[in-house]
Amino acid sequence: MLKNLITTTAAKANLLEGMRAASASALMLLLGCALNVPDFSWAAIGAFWTSLATAPDTARSRLASMLSFALLSTVGGALVTYTASLSATAGALAILIFVTLAGLTRIWGDRPYQVAILAATACVVMIDHPSAASGHMGYLGLYLLGCLFATALSMLIWQIRPFAPEPQHTTWQQAAERTVREALATLREHASRSSDGMHFALRLGIATTAAYLTVHMLQLPCGYWATMAVLLILQPSASGTLPRSLERAAGTVVGTLIAVAIGGLAQTPLQIALAVFPLIGLTMALRPVGYSVFVAFLTPSFILVADYAMPAIDYSYALARLENNLLGSAIAIAATLTLWPLTERFKK
To answer: Residue 339 gets which letter from DSSP?
Structure first.
């Protein structure tokens, strides 16, 4: 049984993709060490999330997904962070609008939704992270640098495998006929899914906003972990949300223990940068294996990168993150069960 598990994991894992994403993030952290600029952690975060947002098919789709994520997350982050600086109410309204719009992209399929939801995740982290919430916007330039570096690394410097061929050229009549057929099929599909898509988007926006307001009212540290959990857990149906919340809880517990163990050994920015490389590599490589495995390595990766300028990680600090994850999971489950619970036709 163990042998079969190892074989299956090895077959699904993509180590080269993991190494490329890890290289993009770790190089940004090492550059921050060399320049003594702790905010380069944002460049590493940008590089990591851009790698997650990548569409794996043609060169055009890969470039479009990475650049779309870079633009959406940077502009959205600037807008929501500025709005939140006015008041918590204004910040909540900004999150409601941005997350709801991100949720609507599910109508157009999983790939647009993946880019949009990761951009929304970046925004909810920026709005509550201490370095971003301080009011200065300099971190956004470094964040965008990391996004563009990961894109260049993927498209120009380190192409792991040839892209799938682009569609061959056709006559303008054939292209026009195909475009009309695709447009009609898309309109029919969207018409049948638009009501459910709107319900899901509103549910996602309301739940994320509720998490944001809750952590602010309770003044919980590391509150962005709760809003981030809602975004990444909430699915169109309870049958999708419940198991995902359990998988995230299990993965977060394991990942938090890993972060605490590494935090006890890696006390300097350089040590953290070196520790991040294998963690992000495993996060990306094991992503196809299962969500709980993915979260188990994602959690320490993000903790170490996000807190690059604040390396002290103790048990109380890790416990606060775990509590926020559980809070976000509870809000996501409650929203799934109470907000339009019987109207969804989407599949997980």
So the answer is: S
